[in-house]
From TrEMBL, chain A:
Top-level division of the source organism's lineage: Bacteria
Annotated coiled-coil segments of the chain: none
Family: Belongs to the YciI family.
Any Pfam family the entry gives: YCII
Protein name: YCII-related domain-containing protein
Species of origin: Nocardioides albertanoniae
Ranges where the YCII-related domain occurs: 1-90
TrEMBL record, chain B:
NCBIfam families hit by this protein: sigma70-ECF
Domain named DUF6596: residues: 183-283
Single GO MF descriptor: DNA binding
Ranges of residues in domain RNA polymerase sigma-70 region: 19-77
InterPro entries registered for this protein in UniProt: DUF6596, RNA_pol_sigma-70_dom, RNA_pol_sigma70_ECF_CS, RNA_pol_sigma70_r2, RNA_pol_sigma70_r4_t2, RNA_pol_sigma_r2, RNA_pol_sigma_r3/r4-like, WH-like_DNA-bd_sf
Name the record gives this protein: RNA polymerase sigma factor
Keywords for the protein's UniProt record, in alphabetical order: DNA-binding, Sigma factor, Transcription, Transcription regulation
Cleavable signal peptide: none
Source taxon at top rank: Bacteria
Example GO BP: DNA-templated transcription initiation
Amino acid sequence: MRYMMFVKMDPNAGPPPAALMEAVETEIQQQYADGILLDADGLGPAVEIRLNAGEVTHVDGPFAEAKEVAGGFSLFEVRSEEEALELGRRMVQLHVDLWPGQDVTVEMRPLFGPPAPAE
Amino acid sequence: MSSPTDDAILAVWRNESVRLLAGLARMTHDLDLAEDLAQDALVAALEQWPREGIPRNPGAWLMSIAKRRAIDGFRRDEVLRRKVALLGHELEEGEMPDLAAAVDHIEDDVLRLMFLSCHPALAPDSRTVLTLRLVGGLTTAEIARAYFAKESAVGQRISRAKRTLAEAGASFELPVGAERASRMREVMQTIYLVFNEGYTATAGPSWTRPELCLEGMRLARMLAALAPGDPEAQALQGLLEIQGSRLVARADASGKPVLLEDQDRTRWDQLLLRRGLAAVERATALATSGIPGGSYLVQAMIAACHGRARRAEETDWAEIARLYDLLASGAPGAVIEVNRAVAHGRAFGPEAGLAILAALPDGALAGSHLPSGVRGDLLHRAGRHLEAAAAFAEAASLTTNADERSLLESRATACRNHAVPSDASVSTTSGSGD
């Protein structure tokens, strides 16, 4: 089963400490060597195309009201939900250890995968 | 954080077990002992983690417990101590290795474990089971489920395999030179077998068993990461990912097989296809830079030809025929000849394919449905419907897969009726690019 991971934090948090970047890189290398990381990339600022009460507007980010933004994603192939949650737990633990005082949210989202063939 | 459940602990265990086991196997030179120590560490985790939470570095935690148990055991058991004299030195080093800083070392350990599980002293079936257990981290029960086998039978096969390795004096060292190359081929063949068993199930009711395909792909990715300069390892990953990208398109809603040319290509898994094509590119680049590729690279290039065709009619059959010629010149064999017949039949007309089949030595692939199935398809394309019907009927009587049988029977009927046009090729379980 596939899971997408988003690491979300305060957009004003500033650059992460070098030690954290390094530890995350090591973690990514391990996921790659374990054959479970299918894809990963960084995400730039959002542009939202909103439909609100019949009106379509384009709004460029970053959004002042945003408390958390996802700076990137990783896509995993794992064998159970527990394996996916463990990957998320590790990512949070790296922040606990290497960026004290900075809150972070790691989101793990299961993918539905391709639809079943039509009858 | 809430206390972890047993399922969560088992998930951590599964992520860590291959590295844990690989390190312990290097230190003890005894697979049974290494597995026992690793299991002890799991039991300790199941006792302690629900109370204390999952440690920051679970791999290091498990390794330190396993080492402590080993040292305790060796103090108590003089016989064991003498039996594995090597162990003392590494274990008494005391300091826990920094796992993150020792990645190269760990990678060597994992590769060692792969070579060991795919040792030439073992029968191919034992290699696949042992690899799934030791490298894949699957439980005996999970392996038994995947192969529709009894758990006790799988357990026995694993014990026997470990005994065979011990009796053969299988080396825990990394092979070098020519031996490394031949052992790599055995590892790749084992991974291919795992995948292929899932891709065309030889037993059981269903046409595919995706979980074995997923394990095969994962093992292939691991090997490709462990041997980044080896074009064949990259090619194997590419081959399996490209074939894996078609998994969901290979069966219809009722679970019946849909052959490559009839598949809805919009349902191919684009992520796996893209990854697979990229792996083939890597393999090709390595091969053109002077490290020779082999049969996996050619097979992967064939799979890539199919993968790049957005519609079946766009398939570059002339290129595929050329690649099969290459494959046949490097590794002659009846299965490849049959696939070469398919490709030449498509590229240069059915008679060209039939000529290749006619040149097969008598008795080649006796008992296999493959040659008669392909002959049926070529005869059908040549408009020789009655002969085609007979060939399909023969193929149907030979296959052991229920879905495949009913597909071949329906093609025989269609040919007899002349009425139902079919553009499908028979399935080939290896090398045809599907």
